[in-house]
DNA sequence: TCGTGGTTACAAAAAGGTGCGTAATTTACT
DNA sequence: AGTAAATTACGCACCTTTTTGTAACCACGA
C-alpha cells in the first residue's frame, strides 16, 4: 500500500498500522524501552530488514523514538512517544472487540 | 499477510483490517445498505476482484452480511452486522488519534 | 571472531490489476 | 417477431507490481 486513495485520516492511520508487525511492535514497546535486538528476540520470525523498515515507519509517524547511544558496541533504544502511548488503548480496544465478537459465535445469525 | 505469528487477538484483527480497503468499505457501509456496484461507485479505484475478495473477508469475519436476492439481473446487498457497527467507533477513534497527533506537529520534538 | 544496528542487492513470494466468461432477464433495435 | 445488447455480481487465468526474505557487507571494539 504505497499511496493513498483519499485524504481521509483513517486511511492514513491504516497505512501505518497495516501489516503484521506495527501493532506487534507497539505491543512489545509498551512494556518499556527496547533495543533492536530485544525486539528481534521478542518476535523471532521478523527479519532484521523488516524490523528496521517497520521501526523507521513508526518513527516517521511519530509513534516511537529512536535514541542512539554512541559507544563501543553501538546501542540504540526504541521507545513509545506520548502519542504512541495514547495509541495503545485504541489498539487494545480493537483486540477486545475481536475477542468479544468471536466469542459470540457466528454474528451473522445471532 | 497470509498466516499468523501469534494467537494474539490484536494480530487477528489486523489481519482483517490491514490494507487500504477494509476500513474504507466499513466507512461507506456505515451509511447503510449498499450493493456491489454502489461500493464500486463509492471508490472507483478498487477492482471488482479486490472488492469481491475484501467483502468476503469482512463477511467471514462477521463484520458484514451478504444478502442475495435472486432475480433477473441478480441483486446482492451488503450491510454491517451489529458487531461491525460496534467496530465503527473504534476505527473512528484511530482516525481522530491520527488527526490529533499530526496536528501537533512533529511529536518527537514537542 | 563475535555482537551491535544497520544498508544494499538480488530473489522469492504475495498482492493486485485486466479481461473474459456466465446466468437470466429486460430493453432496444430492426 | 427476432436478435442483439446491457445489466449484476462475481470466478478464473494470466501477468505485473509490491512486498518480504536471504545473504552479504559495514564499522567498531572486546
What features would you describe in this structure?
- The structure is a homodimer of 110-residue chains.
- The first copy, chain A, is an alpha+beta fold.
- Chain A has one domain: Arc Repressor Mutant, subunit A, CATH 1.10.10.
- Chain A contains five helices and three strands; from the N terminus they run ααβααββα.
- In chain A, strand 2 and strand 3 form a beta hairpin.
- The first copy, chain A, is globular, with a radius of gyration of 16 Å.
- At the A-B interface, helix 1, helix 2 and helix 5 of A face helix 1, helix 2 and helix 5 of B.
- The structure holds a DNA duplex (30 and 30 nucleotides).
- Chains A, B: This is HTH-type transcriptional regulator YybR.
- Chains A, B: GO terms for molecular function: DNA binding.
- Chains A, B: Keywords: DNA-binding, Transcription, Transcription regulation.
Number of domains of chain A: 1
Count of β-strands of chain A: 3
- Unreliable spans of chain A are 106-110
The CATH superfamily name of chain A is Winged helix-like DNA-binding domain superfamily/Winged helix DNA-binding domain
Give the terminus-to-terminus CA distance of chain A.
Answer: 35 Å
Largest sheet of chain A: 3 strands, antiparallel
Order of helices and strands of chain A: HHEHHEEH
Q: What strand order characterises the main sheet of chain A? A: 1-3-2
Mean pLDDT of chain A: 91
Indicate the proportion of strand residues of chain A.
5-15%
CATH class identity of chain A: Mainly Alpha
User: What is the overall shape of chain A?
Assistant: globular
- Helical residues, percent of chain A: 40-55%
Domain HTH hxlR-type (chains A, B): 8-106
Keywords (chains A, B): DNA-binding, Transcription, Transcription regulation
GO molecular function, one term (chains A, B): DNA binding
Protein name (chains A, B): HTH-type transcriptional regulator YybR
Amino acid at each position: 500500500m504505497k499511496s493513498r486513495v483519499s485524504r481521509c485520516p483513517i486511511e492514513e492511520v491504516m497505512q501505518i498500522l497495516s501489516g503484521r508487525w506495527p501493532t506487534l511492535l507497539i505491543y512489545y514497546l509498551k512494556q518499556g524501552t527496547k533495543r533492536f535486538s530485544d525486539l528481534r528476540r521478542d518476535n523471532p520470525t521478523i527479519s532484521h530488514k523488516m524490523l528496521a523498515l517497520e521501526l523507521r515507519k513508526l518513527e516517521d509517524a511519530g509513534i516511537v523514538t529512536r535514541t542512539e547511544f554512541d559507544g563501543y558496541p553501538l546501542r540504540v533504544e526504541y521507545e513509545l512517544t506520548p502519542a504512541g502511548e495514547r495509541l495503545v488503548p485504541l489498539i487494545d480496544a480493537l483486540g477486545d472487540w475481536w475477542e468479544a465478537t468471536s466469542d459470540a459465535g457466528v454474528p451473522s445469525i445471532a
